Each structure stands twice: as structure tokens, then as C-alpha cells.
């Protein structure tokens, strides 16, 4: 069967095909192409962000952080800083209204044997002066045994560690001020511990006319430093030392001013 289209029908058919093609093309331009373009832009953006992230990660891994050791050296310095110990003791004096009569110190390499010796010395001390009072001090929390039973110390942690042992002969108004003095020593920024304490209690008061005697006692403290890292000595904490008063006669601070005014 043969189909015959008139000229008018052929024109309509061609126009219909052209219109359909136009509709499809416009739909592609208005709907499909913008979506593809958006997807392409997002993909490029993701690739760019990924490259930036890789660059930042590489930079962070290559740049070693620079950390100052000053804060750490406030706890354990790399140099002795004996002047700091003296200032800390003076501060404890002021806070507890005590007076240090005599002070001496020695330096030595820290070993685990040093942890055992204080216990042996406590057993050898005469019961009149030290044994009972050391027990009281432990009960009040002023002197703690640094090595508890079963506790082990990694030798690498104390390798190269030196200790400064300071022996103090102190006078305090009463037992409460003694505790304040010890507490002030142990709560300094720099790690400091009380090794031993010995004193003889004052005689018992039997009348209201008697005046309580001040406590005189001996205390041994220890602090530490790590000389194996001397290259960090420049980062050691700076000491805040009071400025000199430039007094010609420190025993009579007020007489010089009066003499100058009279002249």
C-alpha cells in the first residue's frame, strides 16, 4: 500500500518535526546543560579544595613546632639556679613568720638509692628528737615518702638528673607556722620536696606567766635540675631579684637620712 501525501501535509509534517527538534534543543539548553555545567564547576571546586588541603597538610608535617622550654624549666631547670632556691626560702620565711638561722646546700647526682637512705636515717634518729616528730609531720601531710611500696621508676626518666639538697635550721613562732613554712616550700613552682624534719617540742607550760618558746628545727629539702640539656640554658626562667637599696649602713637604715637632713 502506497501512502500519498499532499504538498500541504508534507509541509505540516516537516514543520512538526522542526518544532519537536526545537523543543528538545531548548529543553537541553534550559534544563540539562545548566545542570551539567554546575556539576562540572562543583567537581573543579572539590579538586581545588583538595589540592589546597594537601598543600596545608604537607606544610604542617614539614614545619616542626617551635616550643619554648621556659615553662618546663620552671619545674625542673637545666642549670642549678641556687639563687631561686634562696628566694623561695625567703618567701616561705615571710609567709610563715619564720626565720632561717642557717642554710647549707650540696649538689649530687640523683639516684634511686637516695630514696632509700632517708628511711634508714629515720630509723637511726634518736626517739627524743626526730622519730615521733617525723611521724607527726607525715600525719599532717608535710613530708611524704616519695617512693611508695611497689612503685617503680623508669631509669630513663632520671638519667642525668641532679639534685640539690638544702639543709635549713629554722625558727618558727609555733607549730602552725612550721606547717606554713613547709607547705610554702613544697608548693613552689619549682619541684621541691621535704626529705626530713626533726625538732624538739617546747616544754609544757605550767603557769600563765610562762611564755611559749619558739620552735627551732632542722629540715632537709631537695630540688632538681637536668644538666644534660645545657643547650637550653638560655631559655631558663629569669629570676626576679629585688633591686639593691644602696645603703651604706644596712644595720641603721634611718640614721643616714637624718644625718643628711641635719647637714
From TrEMBL:
The keyword Transit peptide does not apply. InterPro entries: Transl_elong_EF1B/ribsomal_bS6 (IPR014717). Residues 123-143 have a biased composition (Polar residues). The chain crosses the membrane at residues 12-31. Keywords: Membrane, Transmembrane, Transmembrane helix. Residues 120-152, 235-263 are annotated as: Disordered. It comes from the Bacteria. The keyword GTP-binding does not apply. This is Pilus assembly protein PilO.
